[in-house]
Structures are given as C-alpha cells and as structure tokens.
Write a structure and sequence with these properties.
Helix 1 packs antiparallel against helix 2. A hairpin with a 2-residue loop joins strand 8 and strand 9. The protein folds into two domains: 49 residues; 142 residues, Galactose-binding lectin (Jelly Rolls, Sandwich). It is α+β, with helices and mostly antiparallel strands.
C-alpha cells in the first residue's frame, strides 16, 4: 500500500506541474503588425492566471527608416546603435526616437511596442510583463504600429504561465490528504502491534 501512496503523491505533483507552460515565440514587425498583419497566437490563458512575458532589451525591430528602431518597449526615446545590434548602424548612430502613441481598436500604446491581446482586450507587454491574464483565451502578440509596409526584423518573446491558484490549492490539499492517510496508517499499525 505504501507504493500506491507514493505513486498517488507523484501523480498529484506531476498534475500540478503540467499546468505550468513556457514557450518562446518569434514576433515579426512586418507579419505581426497590429495594422496589416496577424498576431502570433501563443498560450491559452484563463483570466487571472499568472503570466510572464520577457524579451531581451537588446532584441530590436524596426518601423522603417531611421530613427525607427526599438526594443519591445517601443519608440519611447532616443536609442543609439551599439555597432553590434540588429540595426547594422555604426556605434553611436541614433537609431530610435520618441514617436508617441498609436491608438487602434480603442487602445493606445507606444509605436513599436510589444502588445498582447486576449479576447479583444489589449495590454502593453514591452520587454518585461509579469501579472495576471486580463481575460480568458489565447494570448496574441503584436508589433504595435500604424503602417507595416516598411517594418523589418523580429523579437523573441518568452511566455510563461504559472499554475492557477486553484491548481496549487488542489495539489496542497492532495498532499495534505496523503499525509493524513500515512499518519493514520502508522497509528493503526502501532495500535495493532
């Protein structure tokens, strides 16, 4: 019986672990533009589920001619080439600038930023987002801009979900029940001995 108890415990832990997901998605400035492209479908989420999206700050994409290079935070201020970045420009060349906000579908975000959409509701993700899913459905990832015609390059977004609180509660409850059963078995064996 002890083996079946251990197996049940392992199955409970494995079940909770399978509720966590992690994957990387390539988001292209041209093909995945909010205007003229289609979002990258990533993971299916439940409203309130913990979500993390991260992009390397040195990962750049472009909305066209200089100075329109940015990372996933968007065209929010001056950005200068390092000489080894995706722009191909000489070190010190200004490759990015503040282009303000673009409003689409009733949502405003910086031009060139990484934006997520779930169930028709948008949120700026940028280079680092950590919080609850704002709706239920598939998280779609977009390059936010008004004209995708001269967009280039891509970023890689790492998307991770954490098990929902109900999943963790179920796992902890299962472990508690298993502990109670084991303790009860020990006390029954002590009494009969």
């Amino acid at each position: 019986m002890r083996k079946s108890l251990k197996l049940l415990l392992l199955m409970t832990v494995a079940s909770a672990a399978t509720q966590a997901s992690a994957a990387s998605f390539i988001v292209r400035a041209l093909e995945n533009s909010s205007s003229g492209g289609a979002g990258v479908a990533s993971l299916a989420l439940t409203s309130g589920q913990n979500l993390t999206v991260s992009v390397n700050t040195g990962d750049l994409w472009s909305a066209g001619a200089l100075p329109r290079w940015s990372n996933a935070n968007g065209l929010t201020g001056p950005l200068f080439a390092t000489g080894t970045d995706d722009s191909g420009e000489a070190a010190g060349t200004q490759i990015g600038s503040d282009f303000g906000l673009w409003t689409q579908n009733g949502f405003s975000a910086p031009y060139g930023s990484l934006v997520g959409e779930i169930g028709g509701v948008y949120k700026v993700l940028g280079t680092n987002f950590n919080g609850p899913a704002w709706a239920s459905g598939t998280l779609n990832l977009y390059y936010w801009d008004s004209n995708n015609g001269d967009n280039t390059q891509f970023i890689t977004a790492a998307v991770t979900t954490v098990p929902e609180p109900a999943g963790w509660a179920m796992m902890v409850g299962g472990i508690g029940v298993l502990g109670w059963i084991a303790r009860r078995r020990r006390s029954v064996q002590t009494v009969t001995a």
